[in-house]
Amino acid sequence: MVIFVHTADWQLGMARDLLDDDAQARFTQARIDAISRIGDVARDHDAAFVVVAGDVFESNHLDRRTVHRALEALAGVDVPVWLLPGNHDPLDAASIYESSAFTARSPEHVRVLRHDAVDAGGGVELVGVPWTSKEMLRDEVAHTLSRLDPLAGDRERIMVAHGVATGFDVDRHRLDVIDLSQVQRAVDERLVSYLALGDRHSTTRVGTSGRVWYAGAPEPTRFTEIDAGKVLVVDVEGPRCDVTPVRVGTWRFRQWPVDLTGDHDVDALRARLDGVADAARTVVRLDVSGVVGLSTAARFDGLIAEAADRLAACDVRGRDDRLVAVADDADLSDLDLGPVTRDVVAELCDAALGGGDGAQDASRALVLLHRLVAGAA
Amino acid sequence: MRIRRIRLRDFRGVAECDVELLQAGSETGVVVVEGPNEIGKTSLAEALDLVWEYRDSSRSRVVRDLQPVGRDVGTTVEIDVEAEGVAFTYAKTWNRDTSTELQVTAPRAEHLTGREAHERARRLLADLVDPGMWAALRVAQGDVSLPDVGAVPALATALARVSGTAAVDARDTAMADCVATERARWWTDHGRPRGPLTEATAGLEAAQEAHGRAQAALERVREDLDAAERLRATAASTGRELDEARVVQAASRAAVERLHDAQRVVESRRSRHEQCDTAAQAARRALGRRGELVAEHAAAVEMLDAARAAWDAGMGVRDGEADVARRQQARDDARQARDAAHERLRIVEAQARRSTATAELSGLHSRLDEARRVSAELRRVEQELSRGLIEPSDLDRLRGLDLAARAAQGALAAGAARVGITVDDDVEARVTEGTESVGRLDWTEIEVVDGVEITVPGVIAVRVAPGAGLAELRGRAQAARRELAAALAELGVDDLHAAEAAASRAGRSGEEAVRLRAARDHALDGEDIEVLTLRAAELGAAIADWSEMADDDAGTGPDLVGAQQAARQAQELLDGAQAVLDAAGAQAQHRRESTEELRTTAERADATVAHLASRLSAARSDVDDLVLADEAERCESELRRASAAFEGAREAVAAEPAEQVEMLAESADAAVGRLEVELADARRELAVRAARAAAKSEEGPATTSDRAEARLRAATSRHERAEHAASASALLAATFARHRESRRRQWVAPLADEIHRLGSVLWGSGFSVELDDDLRIARRTLDGVTLDFHDLSHGAREQLALLTRLACAIVVGPGGAPIVIDDALGFSDPERLRRMGAVLGVAGRSCQVVLLTCHPQRYRHVPNATTIRLPVGSVAYRAA
Question: Which residues in chain B have their CB less than 8 angstroms from residue A316's CB?
Answer without folding.
Answer: none
